[in-house]
Design goal:
Elements (H helix, E strand, L loop, with lengths): L10 H9 L2 H16 L7 H31 L1 H27 L6 H6 L9 H25 L3 H16 L7 H20 L15 H17 L10 H6 L4 H9 L6 E2 L12 E6 L4 E8 L1 E3 L4 E3 L2 H4 L10 E2 L5 H12 L1 H6 L3 H6 L6 E8 L15 E2 L2 E7 L5 E3 L5 E3 L9 E7 L7 H10 L4 H14 L7 H23 L7 H11 L5 H13 L4 E2 L11 H8 L1 E2 L1 H14 L4 E9 L13 E4 L3 E9 L3 E4 L5 H10 L3 H38 L4 H16 L7 H12 L4 H11 L7 H29 L1
Parallel strand pairs: 13-14
Antiparallel strand pairs: 1-5, 2-7, 2-16, 3-8, 3-15, 4-5, 6-9, 7-12, 9-12, 10-11, 15-17, 17-18
Helix pairs in contact: 2-3, 2-6, 2-7, 2-8, 3-4, 3-6, 4-6, 6-7, 7-8, 8-9, 8-24, 9-24, 13-17, 13-18, 17-18, 19-22, 20-22, 21-22, 25-26, 25-27, 25-28, 26-27
Length: about 775
């Protein structure tokens, strides 16, 4: 009677085959690397890895379903078209839903979010979901198509560089682990589908035996690629920056990102390597440039906000010149009043200073040339670059009105400054407090009620104001009047440090031996240099970290943390202070686009610093950021190639150990089998011997024991007939076996193992 063979669905084999699919896992690896880039950057990088792995798990599930659909489509072309259309509709609906949810209470559209550096944005989970769904469909489709349908190594290479392009557009380096895994995965996938795919002329029979040479190749490739010395390359992006065309998108980008100017969280200072040109400057010295001030700090959000103290007008809108400060600050105005009114001079003990005068800082000029148009931006900025200790904006090429703000900045009224704007400022050289004479003058004023001093100064100056008064005198009048009007607000709003007792205690400890406000300011500034604080552009703050954590726990950050902490410590010490943002102008390079300029400001020079109100002088800027430590960190910071080289050593060592174990495994497992068999029962030993010999010789489990014995004899000449008979007796006859029979089976196993190895050696010799 003829027996009918039935084929049953083996779920275990099906799952094993599909979940060991190299195309699926390469897609998982690619999407995991992509999703790490769009992580929540307020959290640590470690949590970013977990975030990316979570999306990798989703890719395993979605990818498995997608690839089963693709497998079906591969066999049914006509129906497959409609199936893929349906898949696109489903994913498209998911993307649309995610973007609609993400757009709620979020200031920018998804396209702008995707193109904007993630360091500059708040994390948007639903926008991230939309990105994932869109790229999951795209990457899964093209990787599957160009491996299983049409093998195209060039197209796969283009797919391979997509994640690197996503990182590269924001100057971010992909983590070394992802670089190595993606490179190895790409090579393995290409080798597998180039060499192991059946064709019309070639059928690959024993695929499972090919894994060892492929593994060896992958290890050699990964280790060599990582360890082999690579030249350090620094990209020159100046050509690219000057070729970007201004278009409507740039206008929209500028306009929509304005919402972020009202607050600052310091993210814009981290990993800032943007070489985009901002200004070329003609000046006599390096300067700190101010473009905005912030007065209110939120400990919960670790965020500074603009208040009326920063944004209200302090002068009338109009054409330059625009009064910002006064020569020598309020000290110059007080000395002027003392020289005009003897009663005022006597009241405040200034007669000696009227006779001898003060050591005046040199009044200098700086000219700024905006390069917005040159780098392709079709809109300028609404804030002018104001140098430290600025006295006046003497001129600018703007046709519209400008105005000075209470924060000491200059604002373009109604519309922005032009993209090719030129600004000129007069400012005091930063030497006022270097004079002991000037410090004595400030100490003298500190003995009196300061609000009364300001009021008396303003009254005396205005009483002597007439049509013949010089512009310098009028400037002193305006500055004294403004300080008199605002000082009460300074005390109300700019002494807030959140009532933090630890900050107050530290401020008192730092300034306990200081006699004047300026000495206190210097002591606070020096505190960061003398207490092991570290400047690190790569440091990512954990969720909820703020200035307290920086001061007392992490001691690691960028200029934002240093400036914020000094402002809060100064306030706790009783000195009004505010947080400022702008640029640190230190690059002494001749102008490339503007003639006669000798300094260059780039986007990477973005800087945060504190300004303190020193009674008797006015607003003075300080630099608590540990620049020397920053340079040390930069020197220690490894390049990607350095990290790859170090990682390559570990990969090579680990992979060699794995391969050594893999090639030694047959002998090791053989020895272990012999040792462990001594403790087994005779029945269990015979069964184990039969199963092990079948695996060793590659005999499928559809054969009977006698057929297996015949195949063993055919392949190596070994005789395991007694073992086959014992196997049948104990399995089917349920007969008990003794120790002698157990030893007989073990002896046949050892002979069969040795003869199998000898037969393999003979085959290798013959093949040569």
């Amino acid at each position: 009677m003829k027996e009918t063979n039935k084929t049953y669905f083996d779920l275990k084999k099906f799952l094993l085959r599909t979940f060991t699919d190299p195309v699926l896992w390469y897609t998982v690896l690619t999407m995991t690397a992509l999703m790490y880039h769009y992580r929540d950057r307020d959290k640590t990088d470690t949590r970013g890895y977990f975030f990316a792995v979570g999306w990798g798990v989703c890719t395993v599930l979605f990818g498995w379903i997608m690839f089963r659909i693709f497998d079906y489509m591969k066999k049914h072309n006509f129906i497959g078209f409609f199936m893929y259309t349906a898949l696109v509709v489903v994913f498209g609906a998911g993307v649309r839903l995610a973007l609609n949810i993400g757009r709620e209470d979020y200031p920018i559209l998804w396209g702008l979010w995707f193109l904007t550096p993630q360091d500059s944005l708040q994390f948007n989970f639903w926008y991230t979901v939309g990105f994932y769904l869109l790229f999951m469909l795209f990457m899964g489709s093209v990787i599957y198509y160009f491996t299983r349908i049409r093998y195209r190594i060039f197209m796969n290479f283009l797919i391979f560089i997509i994640p690197f392009s996503i990182y590269g557009k924001e100057y971010e380096k992909m983590p070394t682990l992802f670089i190595i895994l993606m490179a190895v995965g790409y090579v393995l996938l290409m080798v597998y589908y180039r060499q192991l795919t059946d064709t019309e002329t070639t059928v690959f029979v024993e695929r499972r035996k090919s894994w060892k040479p492929i593994a060896v190749y992958a290890v050699i490739f990964a280790a060599a690629a990582a360890i082999f010395p690579k030249p350090a390359v620094e990209a020159d992006r100046s050509v690219l920056e000057t070729l970007i065309d201004a278009d409507q998108f740039t206008d929209k980008l500028n306009a929509m990102l304005d919402v972020f100017r009202d607050t600052s969280t310091g993210d814009q200072f981290r990993s800032n390597e943007d070489q985009t040109l901002v200004y070329e400057v003609r000046a006599d010295e390096p300067l700190r440039i101010k473009t905005a001030t912030r007065s209110t700090y939120d400990f919960e959000k670790d965020q500074w906000s603009i208040e009326d103290m920063d944004s209200r007008f302090s002068s009338k809108a109009g054409k330059p010149p625009v009064n910002i400060g006064a020569h020598m600050g309020i000290a110059g105005a007080v000395l002027e009043a003392a020289s005009l009114d003897s009663e005022f001079s006597e009241k405040y003990g200034l007669a000696e200073f009227v006779k001898s005068g003060l050591d005046e800082p040199e009044l200098r000029e700086a000219a700024f040339y905006s390069l917005s148009a040159i780098v392709g931006m079709s809109q300028g900025t609404d804030m002018a670059p104001v140098p430290q200790f600025a006295v006046e904006m003497t001129n600018c090429s703007r046709r519209g009105d400008v105005v000075a703000l209470r924060g000491g900045t200059v604002y373009a009224v109604d519309s922005r400054f032009a993209t090719d704007e030129k600004y000129t400022f007069s400012y005091d050289e930063d030497t006022f407090f270097m004079s002991s004479r000037n410090n004595e003058f400030i100490d003298q004023l500190a003995q009196f009620d300061y609000e009364e001093l300001l009021e008396d100064t303003s009254n005396v100056l205005y009483m002597n104001l007439d049509d013949s008064s010089s512009e310098d005198y009028r400037q002193k009048c305006r500055y004294a009047d403004l300080d008199c009007a605002l000082y009460e607000d300074y005390l109300e709003y700019l002494l807030d440090y959140g009532g933090k007792t630890d900050i107050k205690a530290l401020a008192d400890e730092i300034t306990q031996d200081c006699k004047t406000e300026y000495e206190k300011a210097l002591a606070i500034e020096a505190y960061f240099y003398n207490n092991n604080y570290v400047y690190d552009l790569k440091y990512r703050k954990g969720k909820g970290e703020n200035a307290e954590d920086f001061l007392f726990r992490t001691k690691t950050g960028v200029c934002y943390e240093y400036a914020t902490s000094m402002v809060l410590l100064a306030r706790a010490a009783g000195i009004p202070a505010r947080y400022c943002e702008g640029y640190n102008m230190t690059e002494h390079i001749g102008g490339k686009y503007a003639k006669d300029t000798n300094y260059t400001i780039r986007a990477k020079d973005l800087h945060g610093f504190p300004e303190l109100y020193i009674r008797g002088y006015g607003w003075a800027s300080f630099e608590p950021t540990v620049a020397d430590a920053g340079e040390a960190v930069t020197k220690k910071d490894s390049t990607t190639t350095d990290m790859l080289s170090r990682a390559g050593l570990f990969i090579l060592a680990g992979a060699l150990l794995v391969l050594l174990f893999a090639f030694a495994y047959p002998r090791l497992s053989h020895r272990w089998f012999i040792i462990s068999s001594k403790k087994r029962m005779p029945k269990d030993t015979v069964i184990a011997v039969m199963h092990r010999l079948c695996r060793l010789y590659g005999i499928e489990n559809v054969n009977t024991s006698k057929e297996a014995a015949a195949l063993v004899h055919e392949m190596s000449g070994a005789d395991i007939g007694d073992t086959a008979e014992l196997f049948d007796r104990t399995v089917y006859g349920e007969s008990a076996l003794n120790e002698q029979e157990k030893e007989k089976a073990m002896n046949e196993y050892i002979r069969a193992y040795d003869m199998f190895r000898e037969s393999k050696k003979r085959r290798r010799i013959t093949s040569r």
